[in-house]
Amino acid sequence: MGFLGEGNTLTWEEVEKIVPYIKEHGVLQFIEIWKKMQEDPTRPHLWGDEVEFTVVHLNHEEKTVHLNLKTVEILHQLEKEAAETPDSEVGWRPEYGCFMIEAVPGSPYDADSLDSLLKVEANMVLRRKTIEEKFHNSDNLVLSVSHFPLLGCPNMVYPQNTELTHDACNSKFTCDEVINPHHRFGTLTKNIRVRKGSNVAINIPVFKDVNTPKLTYQHLFPDLEASKVPGKEDHVYCDSMAFGMGQSCLQVTFQAEDLQDSLNIYDGFLPLTPIMLALSASTPTLRGYLTDYDGRWEVISQAVDDRTDEERGFIPLKNNQHVISKSRYASVSSYLGSSRGFKKEYNDIPLPLDQSSYDALLAAGIPVELSRHLAHLFIRDPLVIYNDHIELDDATSSDHFENIQSTNWQSLRFKPPPAPAGKNIGWRVEFRTMDLQFTDFENAAFSVFICLLTHAIRNQRPNFYLPISKVDENMLRAHARDAVLEQKFWFRKDISSNSENDEVVELSIGEIMNGSSDFGGVIPLVKEFLDSKKDTMQENTWNKLQNYLNFISARASGKLSTNAHWIRKFITSHPDYKKDSLVTHGITYDLLQKISLIQKGQEKSSELYGEFL
Fold it and tell me: How distant, in Å, are the alpha carbons of 179, 230, 254, 488, 545 from that of 449?
């Protein structure tokens, strides 16, 4: 969701004038939080998840399916009801799309109570059912899917007589009406492209079947030379933020005991981010085409890439300060480095810094690697500034820090407490790479797995460190079609606590997760932790947690399909499919209804779940 404020937002031309002020005070606000947290550093272990639902409307007569733009009205009802309900079990949040609803547990889970993990799936079921009850007929589906295949295609929205506008998106394919009306989202969309100097250009390789037509885009840009056309040949080209931020993910956030605990969790998570992206892959379609990618990450990365030609290194620097190798939405570029086993050489890729921010952070006593991380975030400009939130008290507000932090959408997010730092919220780490899954069972399994991984990191202290350049390489491989089955990933050969062997090897995801004759594996590590706690939990908790881990193990081994593999197979096996890579309304109508039946337990899929569901 990101940072949401009240009031009107500034245009990019207005923001640009105050960028130095926002950055200076953003750093000062973090320093104030840092100081206050030194006085009272410990917090309870808490955690929670975020699920982003998509609502579509079905036209049964014509067998077409459309994004339901009235979903935002349902969201407002849910928010109002939750605000009026003490101890509400669910929290509701706006997301980028009018057709989306973000749902979270009403209060954080106790991470130290393993028995409380049984609440996760039940709460997810409750969220889905609560939304479904607001739609009183069979014409709407509430789905936990990562992407609507027809986003950007003609006739994609409901109501179908919606008058379409394009002021924010300036898109040839989509419209402003799909964007949530909160000022943040439209402003982000417009300010990203205005800062960039052009629309964003998303290019994802098309899946080439026997009848796939050659994709070219010169006809959309008749006044441009062929070399300057933003759409690449034989790629699915899209041109606005909606194609990325209109996708849905599963995110989990963990509150650490203190700063050191948060740094340990962050660095422990980092090498697993591409692995979990591949394991959760559920996005093989884009703008009505099958693509050669299975995950959503690269689509979103390109959808919010506001770098200018100077920052991308296409022309010499003149108006900008840095050449930047990655989008704002990208894999993390450095470890935070305070964990046992860290070596500076693991941070082996260039890390441009905002020098004044770095100097101020170091002077305030913030550790070097954390200062580098934060100063790297501050090479980015703020994108959304509220006109009544400019001159603020740095001791009691963190708005300027959050304006930059919340628009650095990285694979992990290190999150300080909001100002003023109170007794309840502490240092947190957000795991951000997982695609959303079809069922509450799957989303709970992945969420609980990451939670159990935090326990293993704390208790067994594994050494997962490998060079950041190898993690970046793994992120590229994780997007590939059937990456779980076909790709190898760099991983540390010896992950034992006292490991001094820095050798990294290429392993399959099955080997990384399940182990092999000469590699221990991540799931056995988690099970080792569970074995040590078996006497502290109820038998049904033990059984459920083992079931989750065994399910993930089966998917990692290739015995069970990813959602992406299943979707691709459904589409290419559909009688309407012409082996041309096109995903039609009729195919999408059948696909989403099939997924809905699976979600509700009215149909089973042994390919996806075996005996687990």
Answer: 33, 40, 13, 22, 8
Tokens linked to 474: 């793994």
For the full predicted model, state whether its pTM sits above 0.90: yes
Residue 120 phi/psi, 5-degree rounding, is: -65, -55
CA angle 140, 146, 149 (to 5 degrees): 70
Number of residues assigned to the chain: 613
Nearest to 257 by CA among 419, 41, 462: 41
**Which SS3 state, helix, strand or coil, does residue 180 take?**
coil
Amino acid at 27: V
Helical ranges in 1-69 per DSSP H: 12-39
Written as one letter, the residue type at 51 is V
37 close to 425: Cβ distance less than 8 angstroms: no
Give first-to-last CA distance, the chain, whole Å: 30
Tokens of 19: 């960028």
Tally of CB atoms within 10 A around 578: 12
Q: How far apart are CA 13 and CA 305, in angstroms?
A: 18
Q: If the chain, 613 residues long, is cut into consecutive pieces of 10 residues, what is the mean pLDDT of each piece?
A: 66 96 97 92 94 97 96 96 94 97 97 96 98 89 98 94 91 96 94 97 98 96 93 98 97 96 97 98 98 98 98 96 97 91 96 98 97 98 93 93 96 93 86 98 98 96 97 98 98 91 96 95 97 94 97 98 98 98 98 97 96 93
Amino acid in the structure at residue 468: I
Question: Residue 523 burial by CB count (10 A; 0-12/13-18/19+): exposed, middle or buried?
Answer: buried
